[in-house]
Write a structure and sequence with these properties.
Blueprint (H helix, E strand, L loop, with lengths): L5 E13 L5 E9 L4 E8 L1 E3 L9 E3 L2 E2 L6 E2 L3 E9 L6 E6 L9 E10 L12 E15 L2 E12 L16 E7 L2 E5 L1 E3 L7 E10 L3 E8 L5 E10 L10 H4 L6 H6 L1 E5 L19 H6 L7 H9 L20 H10 L4 E7 L26 H12 L4 E7 L42 H15 L5 E5 L6 H15 L4 E2 L25 E6 L19 H12 L3 E7 L9 H17 L21 E5 L3 E6 L6 E4 L10 E4 L8 E3 L1 E3 L6 E4 L14 E6 L3
Parallel strand pairs: 1-4, 19-20, 19-25, 20-21, 21-22, 22-23, 24-25
Antiparallel strand pairs: 1-8, 1-10, 2-3, 2-9, 5-8, 6-7, 11-12, 12-16, 13-15, 13-17, 14-16, 17-18, 26-27, 27-33, 28-32, 29-30, 29-33, 31-32
Helix pairs in contact: 5-6, 5-10, 7-8, 9-10
Protein name: alpha-L-fucosidase
EC number: 3.2.1.51
Keywords: Glycosidase, Hydrolase, Signal
Length: about 700
């Protein structure tokens, strides 16, 4: 049998080792019958990870340790990965690169390849295949009724060598879903689909019960061009329970998927010392001061030299004043920076909360320090002045030295009062501690519910995981949001129910089909303010924008952190860099917001400084290198005769239409930039070019 051209590769895999938060790049070399090769990369996940939950397609509640009968109760997983096969020739072999990370072998349990359709007849137009119809928990109001989003993925299975106007969708096609208990209220739309490509669209439906449904695709005239039946659809949950299987279906809402960019804020008692040696988190001051408590520890030495041996961490509470905190000024900065949401640290591992913790604890900013409800101030002003900006809260699940956490303590979160770093026979106070019976039931769960129900957080951004009451919280969080008509999310660090994968200081090497969000500080090594960092080391507009675009091209969001002073000021070097990046987004944000990743790849495999993003009506090319007279794209992108290409980066907001051509042999695009001024707004070195689809 002759080799066939291939559309897509699929794999079940797991990486050896305990992976922490980081993914490990693994590469495959595809060789084709014309002797050409393509190298494709995956971001491989370890079968055990931190936090203790995983989000694979196959999950188990434990593993056996070293071939014994002793159980490790961390969740373990096998993951699924898929990628486009980018070639005009038939696939001959797949070679995994040698293992270059000791102890991190890649285990492949299954590989399958989707074949392209044959070239026997291309005159009839594209050959469409419904690859997936997936019930989601996302919804929109249609005529005052919640309509559920069903995500439908459609592929054009013709090989890339069949690329032409005749073999492409080049007008508005619609997708409808029908069945015994489902009705389409807003059809999905496909505007462009070339050979070898695939796209996804939301179909809004009213579904009354679980049933099988039929997906229908119609052309611009309403003529049926294809159907696919037998797709199981599950209606929106009307009540969330603690059932893990039900809770695991919850996903990030549409508003979050479209927002792309948020501001993280680490602000608390640690903002008083505001110090760490390079490569260390300043917000970990309290823990690092005590570990180890001797002269080999730079935190210990710094504290002794700066404050003396008689000052303990809780003495800093009085100096956490928030005296210059202005919620309106913060929100204006976030808005002008181009952010669509923010996440404020409501309580870090030191246990000091910036909100009203009620009878669970008096260790908060209302009873101590500023004597103000800082979360309420920021949230209330956001609702009044920036109602379009979504509000989130970071929440540490454990507390380092809370005496009530001792029964649950582990690793660097042991619980129990800290021994004085300089007088080890003495125990340090835990100011504001309230006597309770159980940390999880009487503190952790009530505080999380307070943030959800009293403050109205839309993002519960947990940290560390560990012992928890997350299923109980999640059911109430989701039900409360559903009753209020809002859509909310949690990250993967709440100890259960992974919804959003959140690596730190890492941009992944490949597209992730599961939604993810990288988070990192404006500081190269810290989230909390570190006065030991030179301002020149902060991320500038170029780094911010290039990171944002790279992450978004791989289906991620970017949560960029600032660390205010103890008085509540976001210092000028941080603010200025945010505002410069915001100028770029004000001009070129159409190539970031509301976009999604391109099925055929996040970037040009030859020129690795190009990133690709799509919307139903446009295709974006963002270059991280300044083009000269031409922009050369070594990929067959979905552009057809009659389409317009515009440059979005003009500082005055003008869109410049550009001439372009496609090589008839390779299908590669060249854009003529002669005479175009390429000084980007805000000085960010990223140049956005948008293809506007025309019929």
């Amino acid at each position: 049998m002759e080799p066939l051209q291939s559309h897509q590769i699929h794999m079940l895999y797991a990486l050896d080792g305990y992976g922490g938060q980081s993914d490990t790049p693994k590469t495959f070399t595809l060789t084709f019958v014309d002797n050409s090769t393509e190298v494709i990369q995956m971001s491989a996940k370890s079968w055990q990870r931190w936090p203790i939950i995983n989000s694979g397609v196959i999950n188990t509640p434990y593993s056996f340790i070293n071939g014994t009968s002793t159980k490790n109760t961390n969740t373990t997983s096998i993951f699924q990965w898929s990628a486009s096969i980018p070639s005009r020739s038939a696939l001959e072999s797949i070679v995994l690169a040698p293992d270059d990370v000791p102890g991190l072998r890649l285990h492949v349990f299954a590989i399958s390849v989707t074949a392209s359709a044959t070239l026997s007849d291309t005159s009839a137009g594209p050959i469409l295949s419904v690859r997936r119809a997936r019930s989601s928990t996302r919804w929109e109001l249609v005529n005052n009724t919640r309509a559920q989003a069903i995500q439908v993925t459609v592929a054009n299975l013709l090989p890339i060598s069949a690329f032409s106007t005749n073999t492409s969708i080049n007008s508005p096609y619609t997708i409808e879903i029908t069945g015994a208990s489902v009705e389409t209220v807003v059809p999905g739309k496909i505007r462009r689909l070339i050979a070898s490509d695939q796209v996804s669209a939301d179909v809004l439906v009213i579904a009354n019960s679980t049933s099988n449904a039929t997906v229908s695709v119609k052309d611009e005239q309403g003529t049926l061009v294809g159907t696919s039946d037998g797709w199981p659809l599950t209606p929106l949950p009307t009540e969330w329970t603690t059932d893990p299987e039900l809770l695991s279906t919850h996903e990030t809402p549409t508003w979050y998927n479209q927002a792309k960019y948020g501001i993280f804020v680490h602000w608390g008692v640690y903002s008083v010392p505001a110090w760490a040696p390079p490569t260390t988190y300043a917000e970990w001051y309290n823990w690092n001061l005590h570990n180890p408590a001797n002269s080999s520890n730079p935190f210990w030495v710094h504290h002794l030299d700066t404050y003396g041996p008689d000052v303990v961490y809780d003495d800093f509470i009085a100096n956490f004043t928030a005296s210059k905190f202005n919620a309106s000024a913060w929100l204006d900065l976030f808005d002008n920076a181009g952010a669509k949401y923010f996440v404020l640290v409501s309580k870090h591992h030191d246990g000091f909360a910036l909100f009203d913790t009620g009878n669970t604890s008096a260790r908060n900013s209302i009873n101590l320090g500023p004597r103000r409800d800082l979360v309420a101030e920021l949230f209330d002003v956001a609702s009044q002045e920036k109602p379009w900006m979504h509000k989130g809260t970071y929440f540490s699940m454990p507390e380092w030295f809370n005496p009530d956490y001792a029964p649950y303590g582990f690793g660097e979160w042991p619980g129990g009062l800290a021994h004085n770093a300089f007088y080890p026979s003495e125990l340090e106070p835990y100011t504001g501690h309230t006597n309770i019976s159980d940390y999880l039931t009487d503190l952790q769960l009530p505080q999380m519910l307070t943030l959800a129900e009293k403050y109205g957080t839309e993002i519960m951004w947990c940290d560390i995981g560990g012992p928890n009451k997350t299923p109980e919280f999640a059911a109430q969080f989701y039900n409360n949001a559903f009753a209020k008509g809002i859509q909310v999310l949690m990250n993967d660090r709440c100890g259960a129910l992974p919804e959003l994968y959140t690596p730190e200081y890492q941009t992944l090497g490949a597209i992730q089909t599961q939604k993810w969000e990288t988070n990192e500080g404006m500081d190269p090594f810290s989230y909390g303010l570190n006065t030991n960092t030179n301002a020149s080391q902060y991320k500038n507009a170029t780094t911010i924008i290039q990171t944002l675009v790279d992450v978004v091209s791989k289906n991620g969001n970017y949560l960029l952190d600032v660390g205010p002073t103890a008085e509540g000021e976001i210092i000028a070097p941080m603010a200025d860099n945010l505002l410069a990046a915001g100028q770029w987004l004000a001009n070129s944000g159409a190539c970031v917001y509301d976009t999604t990743y391109w099925f055929k790849g996040a970037q040009d495999s030859v020129n690795g400084t190009l990133r690709f993003l799509t919307t139903p009506d446009t295709f974006c090319i963002v270059s991280f290198d300044k083009p000269s007279q031409q922009l050369a794209v070594h990929a067959q992108i979905p552009i057809l005769p009659g389409d317009e290409i515009v440059y979005l980066g003009d500082p005055n907001g003008n869109e410049t239409s550009l001439s372009w051509s496609v090589d008839p042999e390779t299908g590669y695009l060249t854009v003529d930039l002669g005479g175009l001024s390429l000084d980007p707004a805000g000085g960010a070195e990223a140049w956005a070019f948008q293809v506007k689809y025309k019929s």
